[in-house]
Sequence to fold (281 residues):
Amino acid sequence: MPSLTTPCQPVRPLTEREFDNISRLAYEKFGLELKGGKRELVSARLSKKVRALGCPSFQAYYQHVLEDRTGEALIELIDALTTNFTGFMREPSHFEFLRREALSGWLARDRVRIWSTACSTGEEPYTLAFSLLDVLGGAKRPRLQIVATDISSRALQEAQRAVYPAARLESLPPGWLRTFFLKGERQWKGSYRVKPEITSMIEFRRLNLIEPFSHPEPMSAILCRNVMIYFDKATQQTLVQRLASQLEPGGYLLIGHSESLTGIDHPLTYVRPTIYRRGRA
Fold:
C-alpha cells in the first residue's frame, strides 16, 4: 500500500467494479445509498483523496480504507461522499415552532433535553440554544441540555471549537451576535466564539446513526434533518422507529423539508409538514 508520502501520480478512472465496492462499503457501514448514477460524483469527490494518498487506483484506495484499523480512513471516506452543508437558522420554521409552540409546554419543567442527530459543524445545536434562550431570557428553568452527534470527527472538532467567521453569522437575528458570542480580537479578528455558558449546555458525541444507540433519558425533541435523504427506505424505516423510541411521551421529531415519512411505518402523530409527535402515555 502506498504511504502518505508517496508522490502524487495519475489515478486510473473509477471502474464499475471499484464503484460497486465503494458503494457497498458505504451502504454497509453508514447506510449511504449510492445508485449507479452517482458514479461520476463518487469519482469527483474521492479523486483528491486518492491522489493525496499516492494511490494508483480507486481499488488501492478502497484497500487502504479496509486495512486502516484506526477507522479514520472510513470516516474520511464518508466525509467526502456526503454533503456537510449547514448554517445557522437553516430551515428557520423549525426553530420558530420549538420556541413559540413546543417551549410553552416545557416551561414548568426543570429540564428539557434535545438531540441534534447530525450536528455537522455545530450550527444546528447552537441555533437551538440561541432560539430557546432568546425566549427564556433570564429564567432559571427549564434548564436546557442539548446532545449533538455526528459521524464526522472533523466536523465535531469544529463544532466544539465554536468559532465562526462573521460571514457565517449574517443570518442570525439582530442582537444575537452580542448576546451569544464573544468578538474575536488580534489573530481572531473577524471571527466570533460562542460564549462558554452556551457551549456548556451542549454535549458533543461521535455517533453513526445506523449503529445501535440509546440515551439514558428520553428526549423532548429530536432533530434529524437532511440525513435520511442519503438512506434507502429500509434504513429510513429502522432509523425512524429507533428515533421514536428515544422520545419522551409528547416529544417531537423534526425532519428536513426535503424529507418525508410517507411509506414509513412509525408510531408518531403528524403535527405539520416535517414535524411529528409521540403520543402521550
Remarks:
- Confidence is low (pLDDT under 50) at residues 1-8.
